[in-house]
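Recap from last week: sequence in, structure out.
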Amino acid sequence: MSGACDCDKPIDTNALEVRQRRVLLYLLAINVLTFAMMVAGAVLSGSSALLSGTLDNLGDALTYGLSFAVVGMGIAAKARVALLKGGLIAAAALAVAVHIVWRLSHLDVPVVDVMTGAAVLNLLANGVCLLLLTPHRHSDINMLSVWECSRNDVAEGIAVIASAAAVWWFQSGWPDLIAAAALLILFARSANRVVRRAWQDYRTNPQPV
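Predicted structure tokens:
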């Protein structure tokens, strides 16, 4: 839609909405399944980094459901939902921060095999989600905020796998906590970007829809 040759072509908004809804349904199904797998992995491994991914998957499942609900609505409605999605990302960051503080006094070494297996499956699922979303990321604030969540998920998957390797190498729980802290920063920055963009859109389009 950004190319010069497309400027004068009419956009089939109905077809666009159908494609967006289809993609969001795929993402919702993937994240619900991945969340169940990550819950088991986080509990069995005792990994803080994996727990952050679990909370993120839950937030994403809610995000995709909300995004599905506002496809085809006006900018103000999408901006309001994007504000909520930014809040969900921030809530995931807060939960990770609380768990990190708790782990500082309970620094056990995570079960590396379980942590690695869950992280690899999570990364594969998140990679599929990002590929599905990338063509739609510039459509509107709704799809952009969902794409932000998915990009965070891929970074999170890579970080957890790297921390699992470091835990195995050093036989220490510190790499796991460091990865969780890095993800905390990532979530906070992403929440800030989504909320700022959504607030800007809402202020310029406050009309009821």
